[in-house]
Amino acid sequence: MKMHIDQSRTLVLILLTVLLSACVGSELNNPYAQEEGGQSVLYESFSERPKHLDPAVAYSSNEYAFIAQIYEPPYQYHYLKRPYELTPLTATGMPEIEYLNSKGEKLASTANDSDIAYTDYLLEIQPGIRYQPHPILAKDAQGEYIYHHLTGEQIDRLGSLQDLPETGSRELTAEDYVYQIKRLAHPKIQSPIAELMKNYIIGFDDFSKQVANKQKFEIKDISMTGVTALSPYKYRIRIKGKYPQFIFWLAMPFFSPMPWEADVFYEQPGLNDKNITLDWFPIGTGPYLLAENNPNRRMILQRNPLFHPETYPSEGEPGDKEKGLLADAGKQLPFIDKVVYMLEKETIPYWNKFLQGYYDASGIASDNFDQAIQFTGSGAATLTEAMKEKGIQLETAVTTSIFYLGFNMLDATVGGDSEKARKLRQAIAIAVDYEEYIAIFANGRGVAAQGLIPPGIYGHAEGKDGINPYVYDWVNGKAQRKNIEVAKRLMAEAGYQGGVDPKTRQALILYFDTTSVSIDDRPRMNWYRKQFEKLGIKLVIRGTDYNRFQQKMRDGNAQIFFWGWNADYPDPENFFFLLYGPNAKVAHGGENAGNYQNPEFDRLFEQMRNMGNGEQRYRIIQNLQELVRRDAPWVFGFHPKSFSLYHGWYKNLKPNLMANNQLKYTRIDTAERAEKRAEWNKPVYWPLLIAFVVFVLLLIPAILAYRRRIRETIQ
Fold this sequence. Notes:
The chain contains 22 helices and 27 strands. By secondary structure, the protein is of the alpha+beta class. The strands form 8 sheets. Strands 12, 15, 16, 17, 22, 23, 24 and 25 form an 8-stranded mixed sheet that branches. A 5-stranded antiparallel sheet has the order 5-4-6-8-7, covered by helices on one side. A 4-stranded mixed sheet has the order 1-11-10-9, covered by helices on one side. Helix 1 packs antiparallel against helix 22 (686-714), helix 12 (419-431) packs antiparallel against helix 14 (484-493) and helix 19 (599-609) runs antiparallel to helix 20. The radius of gyration is 31 Å and the shape is globular.
C-alpha cells in the first residue's frame, strides 16, 4: 500500500516540478536556437525558393535578395544619396570612357553622336579582393584542385556540397569579369539579357554562335572581340555607338565576376542530379556566403570571413544625419553576422511572429493592413496606436514602376493617330478612375500616374507642371480627375454619342484581354466593366492563359490589355523606350507592347537617350511626356507604393529602390531586441495553475477511494 501512495505523491511532485520549471523559463515560443539570442542575427522569411542563384540567369526580386549579398558587380548605388548615384564597389573608381570612330581612332568627349562608332569602358578593380572559402577553389599541397576530377563513386556518396570538407580561395581578377560576360553569351546558359547585349557589346553575337556547342568552362580561352582583360586588374568593354545607360548595367548582378573554376566543377557528370549546381551553391566576393540552402525549411547567409574592406557611407542627403543615418559613418561593413531566412507560406503565422519580435521586418498583407495602418484626414498613411506602442517603424516609398492599361495602336477602333481614336482613348483615360482602384484593390498603396516616369526618376515633374492636363485639372493645390461629363463630350466628338457605335447603333463593344481569370480576379474585372459603363461602353473580358495571351500580344490581336514595367536602372530612357517605334512588339518583337508609332516621339527619344542630365534633356523629356499624354496610347495607371514595417531595433533604415545589396548596411540592436522579445513573450501561467489545482482536486477523491479499497482488501 505504501508503494501505491508513494506513486501518487510522486506523480503530484512531477507535475509540480514541471510547472515550477516552466515558471522560471521565458519565451517558450521562441522558434530559434537559444544561443542566437544575443548574436548579431537578422531574421527574415521567404515564401518560395529562389529558382536561380547564378547571376547570369537570375532576374527576379526573390533571387536578387540572396545573390546581391553574395556577388559583386564593379559598381553599386550609393546607399543614401538621391537621386540615385552610382559609386564604385570592386572598382577603384568610375570607368574611363573613350569614344572611337569607325576606324578605331579616339574621338574627343564632345564628338557628335553620329561620329561615334564605338565606346570603350575601361574598368580597374581593387587588388586584394578574395573569393569566399569554397570547395571549388580547394587545392592540395601540389597546387592542384582537389575536387575538379571527382570519380563516379565519389559523386554517388555526395549528399550536398557540405560533404566536401576542404575549401579554398583566390584573388579576384579582371579575367573573372571577362569570363562572366562570355557566360552571358553562351546559349546553354540562356541569360535573359543575352539578346539585348547582342545589340551593344562588340562580338557578343559572334561569340555566342562560336561557342554554341562548347562546354561552359571551355569558353575561358576563347576570345570575345569587345571584352578584353588588359592586366590582372583592368579590363575593357567595347560597345556599339554611344549608349550612356550601359554603365547602369555594370551595377547589376549580370556583370558580377565568376571564377572559371565554378563551371569546371559544376559541369562534372552526376552533380546536377544531386542539385549540386551554381543555382544552389553560389560563389562570390560579397559580404555574405550561402551557408545553408534548405528551401523546405530555411536558408542562411553567413558573413564572408574574407570580405574586403568596405565602410559605411560618410555622406548622404540633407536630413540623413538628423535621422541617425550617419551614426555608423566610416565603420566596417557588414554589421550583421548571420541572416536566417525561414520558410513562411502563410501570412497569419508570419505576421504573428513579426509582432512577437521573431522577425525583424515585415511587409503588410491585405488581411493585416487595418491592424497596422491608418489614414489621416489628409490621406497620409500612419501607424496605428498598437504599432506605435511597439516602437515599430513604417517606411513607405513610391516604387520605380508603372502599371498601365494599354491600347493596341494597330487596332481599327482604339488604335491609330486619328483624332477620333485619340479622343476615344482620352475619354477612357478620364473614366478609368485609378485613384478608386488604388483605394479598393491596393489599400491605398499607390500613386496615380500622370505620365510615363515614376517619382525618383530624372525628368519626373511634381506639382502643377507634372500633371496630365488631358485627364486632370489643378484644383486647390492638387491634381483632380476631370468630371466624367468631360469624357462624355470627348466620346461625342469621337462619334460615339452616349457610347453608341454608329456602325451598329448599339453600345460600343471593346475587348479587354487578360490572364486574370481566377475567382479572386473577378472583382477587379467587374470594376473595369463599371469604369467603361460610365461612357456607355460594353467591355468584354477575354480571359486566357499566359502563353495564349503572350501570343496575342506578339500577333497584335489584343485590343486593350493591362501591363507593367519595373525600372532596370534609374534613367527615363528605361521608360520612354517602352513607346519607341522601333521597339514595337508586332513589328520588331520589342517591349513597345501597344505598338505606338509617332515619328516626333521617336525623334525626340533618339535625341534624349544619349544626353547627359541637364536643362536641355529635361525639356525634351517634358515634350515626350506631352506627346504621350495627348496621344494616350496608355491609360497611365499607377505607381505602386511599398509599405514596410521594421522593429525599432532595425537601424540604418532607408529605402533604396535600385540597390539590392542593402543588407550589409543594416545594423540590429540585439540588446533592445532581446529585451522586447522577453517583454512581449512572457509566458501566461495562470491557466496552468488553474488546471493544476483542478487536477489535484480531481485526484484527491480518486486517491481516497483507492486507499479505502486497499483497506477493505486487507481486512
